[in-house]
């Protein structure tokens, strides 16, 4: 049987959005009156078509009921413990405590530099600090958990005193457990909880919010000719099945964030498709995060206009994601991205 997926599209913003909602000409995205939509794209694994929401009543009963259930998920408010999505997007600032991360390896893996950089990110509007002690860039090799924790702990011990939301970027359950004991508030597992079989048990035991990132393969092999029949529907199905797995394991809360994993086992076409249609994942009923900051797809598109920090490409992809209601942007350049968001919002 053909499976249908519902993507909110044709968005309105600011005062225009509020007026459309009052006149019942659009629906609020994630319960937020500042962004709404009046159309949906019905997607199958082979094709798609856009419909105005007024046309849904003419669909056959089974499909109509399916779309209505999806719209309930798309329009409901999303919550994460300790996080407020009233003013979206929320910025997650990156602090790599590694010598070999793809864009800033070695810059912040000293005690003083990590703390100074963390304070700077917070002062510029960062709400979440994402720290990690293992590089998962394309081609990176696995490292021992002892080495990873040795990189993380001295900095975490300093950063936790700032009483801000700390996210821990790790694939290992022992690192997760140690981090949670040291005031980590969010677990960010780029493997989608597939690297370490014990990770789900730790998350169940601690009841901590966490991020599910989609990836294909491991860092040392994930960019070797990644293929999908339909990258959108396959990643949607991955998330849907993972959520069912989590529910069956005993995790019943909705403090779960979905990240489609730009650059993790995807080529340029896959990345562009995901960014263009990321609003599809709202129908899973959970907040969405995206990390486009400084990534290779920007170089692939910009060619001779590539730059070290790829700030222009980062900002444009972040603003586009914001326009589709993405709640969390994971970025390196918090000040510049926040500046662009403030200016962009002032235009509506």
Give a nutshell description of this structure.
This protein is α/β, with parallel strands linked by helices and 348 residues long.
Describe this structure in words.
- With 348 residues, the chain is an alpha/beta fold.
- It has two domains: 5-75, no CATH class; 90-346, TIM Barrel (Alpha-Beta Barrel), CATH 3.20.20.20.
- The chain is built from eleven helices and twelve strands.
- Strands 10-9-8-7-6-5-12-11 form an eight-stranded parallel sheet. Strands 1, 2, 3 and 4 form a four-stranded antiparallel sheet that branches.
- The model has no long low-confidence stretch (mean pLDDT 93).
SSE layout and pairings?
Blueprint lengths: L4 E9 H9 L4 E3 L2 E12 L4 E5 L8 H15 L14 E7 L14 H13 L4 E5 L12 H15 L5 E5 L3 H9 L4 E4 L9 H8 L3 E4 L17 H19 L6 E4 L8 H9 L12 E2 L5 H7 L8 H12 L5 E4 L2 H13 L2
Parallel strand pairs: 5-6, 5-12, 6-7, 7-8, 8-9, 9-10, 11-12
Antiparallel strand pairs: 1-3, 2-3, 3-4
